[in-house]
């Protein structure tokens, strides 16, 4: 036998048994963004490599080691998008959506990062994200967090996620802090792990969220960013906290939270769960007022987040909240004998037209009564419709309940639609 070709490591098929929970998550996302009046944007999966280098930053995990970069046939360097913000800004600038305007945008789709595959971490994964442009005040930071809180509530997981919040200040404040932090790290160089040593000059803030225990212990005495914040940054952050208090969204302030991407300023946040092991961040984001200008547009305030869909689906599965999903099929139409196939197909067609939300599967491929009933049962349908020669002769259809012991009943063809509308 020929050797089978396998999927690429870290890139998953989404099988029919899994799609209902994905569809549930996606439909809750769609209804939530619509409740806040956000508009969808779809951008290509491939972009110029420079876009991600210039936005995400050269000294970040993503650009240093995770991008799928290749030369196309023209010799141009292209990259499969590792995240959605850079593309959204690129598209916004290119189509004049951001210039002196407010935009509340959302997107959803696959992202690609060459990471070590493990639970909750894949090489193709999916993100839903929002990006808001043209509004610099803290109320919009609060709004995106309210939207995420609504998602948790609709998904039934609000008890299982918590919000961590921090502020990174503005670029000048961060630059001053950066100097102080580098000076501190230089004094303790011998205690740093290799990653931190490497980042000490290129991206010292990332040392703050080092996973190394010794480094974490050392950081207890490091200078605090909070001491370098100016009045405006402080007020922005305290206003955000007040707004979250006002709408009852709980949070913890985590002064070590810095996020892996370069473009953030002021507000940064993560929603985390303790139910997924080490891949516990389910949604992350913050303010990035400098990025639109950095990518060639007019300076425009911006805030956004990205949520990983795989981790949400895993969380729903772990909490066993993936079982209440409506079956794919309501009615399974059977034909008792070859002479009844035409009539059965006509009944199925009529039902789909008259009751557009009804899910009707018709039996194809023949088989005896027992076989057809087995398939009807397997389909998950509530009722089987039985169409045999007697039924056709009397202009009737038999409705057989599949999920309880209620009696089968005969109805006339003209009563069928009304009867099913009542039953389902
Ligand atoms: P992590 O610290 O887990 O690597 P990150 O800081 O790289 O996350 P972001 O770039 O902010 O994550 O992406 C936002 C969200 O997208 C994450 O919180 C996570 O839910 C999801 N995500 C990121 N990378 C992956 C991946 N490789 N596989 C699955 N989900 C991912
Ligand atoms: Mg990462």
CATH class of the largest domain: Alpha Beta
Number of domains: 2
How many separate helices? 15
Bound molecules: adenosine-5'-triphosphate, magnesium ion
- Basic shape: elongated
Q: CATH superfamily assignment of the largest domain? A: Bira Bifunctional Protein, Domain 2
From the alpha-carbon coordinates, what is the Rg to the nearest angstrom? 28 Å
What kind of assembly state do the chains in view correspond to?
single chain
Low-confidence stretches: none
CATH topology-level name of the largest domain: BirA Bifunctional Protein, domain 2
Q: What's the number of extended β-strand segments?
A: 16
Cα end-to-end separation: 48 Å
Q: Structural class, from secondary structure content? A: alpha+beta
Question: What is the CATH architecture annotation of the largest domain?
Answer: 2-Layer Sandwich
Tags for this model:
elongated; binds adenosine-5'-triphosphate; 16 strands; 424 residues; five-stranded mixed sheet; eight-stranded mixed sheet; alpha+beta; BirA Bifunctional Protein, domain 2; binds magnesium ion; single chain; 15 helices; 2 domains; Rossmann fold
Description:
- The strands form three sheets. Strands 1-5-6-11-10-9-7-8 form an eight-stranded mixed beta sheet. A five-stranded mixed beta sheet has the order 13-12-14-15-16, with helices on both faces.
- It starts with 18 loop residues before the first helix and ends with a helix.
- It has two domains: about 20-170 and about 230-320, BirA Bifunctional Protein, domain 2, CATH 3.30.930.10; about 330-424, Anticodon-binding domain (Rossmann fold).
- It is about 40% helix and about 20% strand.
- With about 425 residues, it is of the alpha+beta class.
- Adenosine-5'-triphosphate binds near residues 125, 279, 306 and 310.
- Adenosine-5'-triphosphate binds near residues 115, 122, 127, 260 and 283.
- Its EC number is 6.1.1.21.
């Amino acid at each position: 036998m020929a050797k089978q070709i396998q999927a690429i490591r870290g890139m998953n098929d989404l099988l029919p048994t899994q799609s209902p929970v994905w569809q549930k998550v996606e439909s809750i996302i769609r209804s939530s963004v619509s409740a806040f009046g956000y508009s969808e944007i779809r951008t290509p999966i491939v972009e110029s490599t420079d876009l991600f280098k210039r936005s995400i930053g050269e000294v970040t995990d993503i650009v240093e080691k995770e991008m799928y970069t290749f030369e196309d046939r023209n010799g141009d360097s292209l990259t499969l998008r590792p995240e959605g913000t850079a593309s959204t800004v690129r598209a916004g600038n290119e189509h004049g959506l951001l210039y002196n305007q407010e935009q509340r945008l959302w997107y959803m789709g696959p992202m690609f990062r060459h990471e070590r595959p493990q639970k909750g971490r894949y090489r193709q994964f999916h993100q839903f994200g929002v990006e808001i442009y043209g509004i610099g005040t803290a109320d919009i930071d609060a709004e995106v967090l309210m939207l995420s809180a609504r998602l948790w509530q609709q998904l039934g997981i609000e008890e299982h996620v918590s919000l961590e919040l921090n502020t990174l200040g503005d670029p000048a404040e961060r630059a001053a802090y950066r100097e102080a932090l580098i000076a501190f790290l230089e004094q303790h160089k011998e205690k740093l792990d290799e990653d931190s040593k490497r980042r000490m000059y290129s991206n010292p803030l990332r040392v703050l969220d080092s996973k190394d225990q010794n480094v974490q212990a050392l950081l207890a005495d490091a200078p605090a960013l909070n001491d370098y914040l100016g009045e405006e940054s402080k007020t922005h952050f305290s206003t955000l906290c007040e707004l979250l208090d006002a709408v009852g969204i709980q949070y913890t302030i985590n002064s070590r939270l810095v996020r892996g991407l370069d473009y953030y300023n002021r507000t940064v946040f993560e929603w985390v769960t303790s139910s997924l092991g080490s891949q516990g961040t389910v949604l992350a984001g913050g303010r990035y007022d400098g990025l639109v200008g950095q990518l060639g547009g007019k300076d425009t305030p911006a805030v956004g987040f990205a949520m990983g869909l795989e981790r949400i689906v895993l969380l729903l599965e772990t909490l066993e909240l993936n079982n209440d999903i409506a079956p794919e099929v309501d009615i399974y139409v059977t034909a008792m004998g070859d002479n009844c196939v035409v009539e059965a197909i006509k009944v199925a067609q009529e039902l789909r037209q008259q009751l557009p939300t009804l899910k009707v599967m018709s039996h194809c491929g023949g088989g005896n009564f027992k076989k057809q009933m087995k398939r009807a049962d397997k389909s998950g349908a509530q009722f089987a419709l039985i169409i045999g020669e007697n039924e056709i002769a009397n202009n009737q259809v038999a409705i057989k309940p599949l999920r309880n012991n209620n009696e089968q009943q005969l109805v006339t063809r003209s009563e069928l639609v009304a009867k099913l509308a009542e039953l389902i």
